[in-house]
Amino acid sequence: MSFRHQYVIGDLQGCHAAFRHFLKKLDFDPTQDKLWFAGDLVARGEDSLNTLRDVKALCEQGAAATVLGNHDLNLIAVWRGATKMRKKDKTAPIFAAKDKNELLEWLRHQPILAYPDEHTVLVHAGIPPHWDLDEAAEYAKQLEAQLQGSLYQLDRVLPHLYNNKADDWNADINGFTKIRAIANYFTRMRLCKQDGTLEFTFTSSLDDAMPDDFSPWFEWQVPRERKILFGHWAALKGKVDLPYARALDGGCVWGNHLLAYRLEDGKVFTSSAKCPMP
Predict the structure, then answer these.
(1) What is d(CA 69, CA 123) in angstroms, rounded to the nearest whole number?
(2) Where in the sequence is the domain holding 78, given as residue range(s)?
(3) CA distances to 26, 77, 134, 241, 253 from 267, in Å
(4) What are the b/e assignments for 151-189, b being 16+ CB within 10 Å?
(5) Which NCBIfam families match (predicted)?
(6) E strands along the chain, which residues?
(7) Counting beta carbons within 10 angstroms of the beta carbon of residue 225, is it exposed (0 to 12), middle (13 to 18) or buried (19 or more)?
């Protein structure tokens, strides 16, 4: 299907009012246009429940698609009892809603990696320098299979996704350790070494001091056939725009803006409505 316009939008984080206002600014028409979301649909904004409902409805209409972010995975884990709700998250209304199971069943069946067009690839946090795009797509399928399988399978894997110690990626990695590492690369990565070693504590801007031997994953320049569109790193405020990578988390939930990248020409639009600071 051909569309009038396609936009890739960074982390919504439950900023429902800003999202609805942004759609009006974009003159979004679900019968002609399509939205792609970089994950983290929910968490710290004022209305995660209706944000999730709206995105689900647009996806089922064929007017949107999304990949999963770390906050989306956490929401699924809270639903299944694998972890507790974080104090900073404002997702309790989702679990009180009559349609919670329908929403979360839908959410867990969304992809980790998607292709908005022939020139781009969309993930939440990024693709590490030691994976080519074919490898990344295969690893995404492995994680998706775990998340989209039976509830028994889902309940087995979810407790293993949470560990603040980064796993070393090597030829022998397997089992839940491998699945956790894949999830960490796609949904939590900011800094890494060239061999893929991750660092989880740094969340600041590129102007701040970074741990020795670590760099932003996108600064390890490797040949890419597609431009990687990503969110997750709010402190970048969407200012990273490289030939092979484009940041799209404008930090709306932190008092900044939503960003939308128009696929046909690369133009970036900024929301005028902001979320209040949490």
Answers:
(1) 8
(2) 5-270
(3) 12, 36, 27, 11, 22
(4) eeebeebbeebeeeebbebeeeeeeeebbbbbbbbbbbb
(5) apaH, PRK00166.1
(6) 6-9, 34-37, 64-66, 120-122, 191-192, 198-199, 215-216, 227-230, 241-242, 245-247, 259-262, 268-270
(7) exposed
DSSP 8-state code for residue 236: G
Could you tell me if 277 and 255 are in contact, meaning their C-beta atoms sit under 8 angstroms apart? Answer: yes
- Residue 234, helix vs strand vs coil: helix
Alpha-helical segments (H) within 149-275: 151-157, 175-187
Q: What's the whole-model pTM score?
A: 0.96
Number of domains observed in the structure of the chain: 1
Using alpha carbons, select from 272, 12, 228, 267 the residue that is nearest to residue 129. Answer: 228
pLDDT digits (tens, 9 = 90+) for 10-68: 999 999 999 999 999 999 999 999 999 999 999 999 999 999 999 999 999 999 999 99
Closest C-alpha among 232, 278, 276 to residue 88:
278
The rounded percent of the chain whose pLDDT value lies above 70 is 98
Q: To the nearest 10°, the Cα dihedral for 229, 232, 235, 237?
A: 40
Q: DSSP secondary-structure letter at 219?
A: G
CATH of residue 99: 3.60.21.10
103 touches 52 (CB < 8 A)? yes
| Domain presence at residue 79 | yes
The sign one gets for the Cα dihedral 165, 186, 15, 101 is: negative
Q: Is residue 120 part of a domain?
A: yes
